[in-house]
Design goal:
- There is one protein chain.
- By secondary structure, the protein is of the alpha/beta class.
- The chain has one domain: Alpha-Beta Barrel (TIM Barrel).
- Helices cover about 40% and strands about 15% of the residues.
- It has a six-stranded parallel β-sheet with strand order 3-5-6-7-8-9. It has a three-stranded parallel β-sheet with strand order 1-2-4.
- Strand 1, helix 1 and strand 2 form a beta-alpha-beta unit.
- Helix 7 crosses helix 8.
- The longest helix has 16 residues.
- About 40% of the residues are buried.
- Bound molecules: fe (ii) ion.
- Fe (ii) ion binds next to loops.
């Protein structure tokens, strides 16, 4: 099976992901060997705190995409940002300082891990009111959502999309976090996965083994939606839920 990874930090030298072209290409090779054929590069966007000039990001992306296509012509890359939510990011979005996913209305948004639910919920409302379609990055990470299935339900009713880091499903029965993640996956709340790959060590872009667990537990149809069809709809700015 081929995979579409919607969350990664492989664009070299722009954030805490790949440090240079060599490391980035090693990550791309690994992803390719795992079966990944489409990838959204999502460098961190921190308001007023980026190591890159916002208007230079598309150019850096195009250069990197050219390098990748020399080695893997059948690998497709797209650009986005992982936006650390705070007041002001909506105006930055409107000004074009932030990359939505492949220039669509979809935005990948992260929060401080200790954010309150009120803050998170209001952010989703504000983004929706501004006509953006938010995807919450690594939804398993926020304390205010942990074991609050009613909040997860409320967010999905607002048509907020939930992304999980694929490696989070790894862990035995005694691992409370892994149990919670597996529950979210099995109950169908997770529409999208990403590797959130940052390097070739602890956070490398492995996917295959985790995906096979998901296939075993949730079936091939779910796997295909979460790892191919849904990301494909995102980059085409289509709705996932009709
Ligand atoms: Fe990330």
């Amino acid at each position: 099976m081929e995979f579409f990874d919607i969350h990664s930090h492989m664009l070299p030298g722009v954030d805490d992901g790949a440090e240079n072209l060599e490391e980035a290409m090693a990550m791309i090779d690994l992803a390719y060997n795992e079966g990944t054929r489409k990838l959204i590069l999502t460098p961190h966007y921190v308001r007023g705190g980026n190591d890159y000039k916002e208007n230079e990001l598309p150019g850096l992306f195009e250069n990197f995409r050219d390098e990748v296509s020399k080695v893997h012509p059948d690998m497709e890359l797209f650009l986005g940002n992982e936006i650390l939510y705070e007041e002001g990011v909506i105006s930055d979005l409107k000004e074009g300082l932030i990359q939505t996913i492949n220039n669509t209305k979809y935005v990948l948004v992260e929060f401080n891990i200790r954010t309150s639910y009120v803050q998170l919920y209001e952010a989703m409302q504000k983004l929706a009111n501004a006509r953006f379609r938010p995807i919450i990055a690594h939804v398993e990470r926020y304390r205010c959502l942990f074991k609050h299935i009613e909040r997860i339900e409320e967010l999905t009713r607002m048509e907020v999309l939930l992304q999980m880091n694929i490696s989070s499903v790894y862990g035995g029965l005694l691992d409370e976090n892994a149990r919670w993640c597996k529950k979210l996956v099995k109950e169908g709340y997770i529409s999208l996965f990403g590797t959130d790959a940052h390097d070739m060590e602890d956070r490398a872009p492995y996917i295959k083994e985790y995906a096979s667990w998901i296939e075993k537990k949730c079936g091939g149809d779910y796997l295909e939606s979460a790892f191919w069809d849904n990301p494909q709809k995102i980059i085409e700015n289509k709705y996932i839920i009709d």
